[in-house]
Amino acid sequence: MATHKQSDSVLEVQKSKVKPPPMFKVLLLNDDFTPMDFVVLVLQKFFNMTREQATQVMLKVHREGMGVCGVFPRDVAATKVEQVSSYARQHQHPLACVMEEN
Predict the structure, then answer these.
(1) Distance between CA 2 and CA 93 in Å, rounded?
(2) Running DSSP on this structure, what letter comes out for residue 32?
(3) How far is Cα of residue 37 from the mean position of the Cα atoms in its chain?
(4) Between helices 51-64 and 36-47, what is the axis angle to 10°?
(5) Tens of pLDDT, residues 30-72
(6) How confident is the model at residue 14 (pLDDT cuts 50, 70, 90)?
(7) In whole angstroms, what is the distance from residue 55 CA to residue 13 CA?
């Protein structure tokens, strides 16, 4: 019968540093054709904002040309952009939604 000799070495726990994923801002861009009420609806529907929050973001978009809807990981941000763009097209509005790295 074979005998196994135990090693005197000790295993040490190595901590690996994992960076958090890059985050992306989802932005709505101003245009002269999309009704303000539609923008508020989009913000409530896709970004779970209250009517008051959505109105504040809509006014920022209107006055400053763009407004931040939220900050998300890349996949979530891309999905939000596609959902908003598709919804706007279905309702025949030129509302532009883009994402940029935070």
Answers:
(1) 79
(2) S
(3) 22
(4) 130
(5) 999 999 999 999 999 999 999 999 999 999 999 999 999 999 9
(6) confident
(7) 51
Direct distance between the N- and C-terminal alpha carbons of the chain, in angstroms, rounded to an integer: 64
**Which helix (H) or strand (E) covers residue 69, if one does?**
strand 66-73
> Is 45:83 a contact under the CB 8 Å cutoff?
no
* The one-letter amino acid at 42: V
Q: From CA 30, how far away is CA 28, in angstroms rounded?
A: 7
Distances (CA, A) of 3 to 6, 7, 9, 11, 15: 10, 13, 18, 22, 34
pTM for the whole thing? 0.81
